[in-house]
Every structure is written in structure tokens, then in C-alpha cells.
Amino acid sequence: MRSLSCGVWKGHFLALWLGQPLLILLLMAGPARAWRLWGEPSDKKIRPVQELADARKSAEVVAALTPDFMQTLRGTDLRQAYVLKGDGLSALGRVDEALGVYQLGVRLFPKNVDLLTRQGDVLHSTGLDEQARAFYLRALIYEPRHFGAHLGLAEIDRRLGFFDRSASHYEIALETLEKRADVWRSYAETLLAQRDWTTAELAIARAISLDGQNADGHVLTAFARRAQGDLPGALAALDEAQARGAGVGARRARALWLVEAGKPAEALAQADAVLKEVPGDGAALWARARALISLGRDSDARRVLANLADPARFDLAARAARGLGSALAAPGDPR
Question: How high is the pLDDT of residue 287?
């Protein structure tokens, strides 16, 4: 059972969904505009570079922030210069250089939450989650509800399977990132892992309302319904997802679920579509074999199961295939 604080959050969640105002920390602006938040004076030298960053002109931002120019900056402007240069390098795919810029910025300004969270983000993106966690936690010392730090911790905890902790971090991040459909979807995945169907469906609905043409929200709806035993509803949601360009994963799930729904001919067609795109796909072969058995085509099913018999390739599927194969009548025996 989630904590009382989570119950309070769910009330806030419903308020967000219904469009009612919430008390959100006014200082939680986007991190790329941190220079507006600090009380120190600015000589405004960084503002033209900020405008380039706002226009997503990353190469021009990096070119403008030369060492000579940065030596003329002080205080707020210098801190923001490190943020903007690191962001620009990261956007250009120069991640190692971006990390070096953030590291230098953190050494100069060890309490700056934007630089701390960005260094954490780079480390997290390269799989160095324990090192990233340390930077996120340091940021929270100085700004306990910083959305970037909470988002990073939410992703790390979800990856490690600490779903309750992950959900709590997502909830804080969403106080600021309420317009980010991708964050709502990630939060919903965490809730689904916790079997919190009601809140998960609200989160998915919110994501779809923000980005209805994204197939992922409809895929999540399908899995939420399937988990609650609503197989027809799950298949309908997959229809919506496929209409919006869902990938092979949605077709794979559809093939398996059509077998469960007792629609072997449709399952066979869907499995064949997956195999055309991904030859040798284990789940599609399994669905194809099950469909063939239901259609009375045992000899065809045996040939499919033979493709699943290699444990080096399919492991669990191979063991399941052997069990299913042994249940079939021997060649020549009547069924």
C-alpha cells in the first residue's frame, strides 16, 4: 500500500487531470533559464547566447562561448554559460565534451542545481547510475523539489525495480513537468509495475490528452486493460496504437493475445506479419504454433516448434516449445 503522502498526491493528480490549479513552486522554471532565478546582478552579456539556445541553435551557442568570452563573465552569467555550453555540446552529440564542461562548472559552482543535475543526466545516459544518483541527491540538498533531480532518480529507481520510490520521484517531477506526455507515460509504466491500475489509467489518459498521436500511450492502455482481464479492451487499444504507427512490439502482443482470445486465424496472420519484419522472432513463432494447433494443423505446428527448440537462441521459449510439442499427437496418430 502506498503511503499517506501518496494519497495526498493522488488528490493533486486528480486536480491536475480536472484542470484545477495547484500550488506549484514558482521558482521551478526550466533549467536552461536558470540565470533568471538567481538574485545576483548580471551584466547581460549572456543574454544573446541564451537567445541562441532558445532558438535551438546549438552549434552557434558552442561557437559563441569561447574560452576568451567566458573569461569576461562573472557570477550568474558565468554559471549559465557552463549550462548553455554543456547543453549545446550534448545536443550536438559531443557528450564527453559536455560532461567535461559540466564537471568544470560544478567545481566552480558546487551548489548550482542545474549543473549538478546535468552532470547526473550525462552519467545516467551512459549507464553510470550510481554516480548519477550522487549528483541528483546533491542537487536536492540545495533545492529539495528540483524536478530534474527527481526525474533522474525516478528513472534510475524504475530501472532498478524500486517502483514505489520511482513513483514518488515522478510525482514530484510532474508538479513542474505536467505538460510532458513522455513523463506521464513513464510514470504510468511504474504504476503498472505496482499494479496500481486506477492511477495508471489516469496517468495514461493524461499522456494521451497531451499527445494523442503517440502510439505508446495506447500501448500502455492495452497492457493496463490486459492486466485487469479486459482482453477485448486490450485488443481495441492495440488497434488504436497500430493505427498510430506502433512498432513490432504491439503486433507481437496482438498475436499472443489473439491466441488467448480464441481467434487463431487472426493470430496466425498477425504472427506472420511479425515474422516478415523480424524473421525468427520467438514470441511470433510461439503464437504461430499455438494458432496452428487450434486450427488443427499439427504437422505445421511441429515444424514451427522445431525452430524454437534451440535453447541457445530462445531459452524459456525452447522449454515451452518442447512441452507443447510433447502434447501433440505423434505423426500419423489420430487427434
Answer: 92
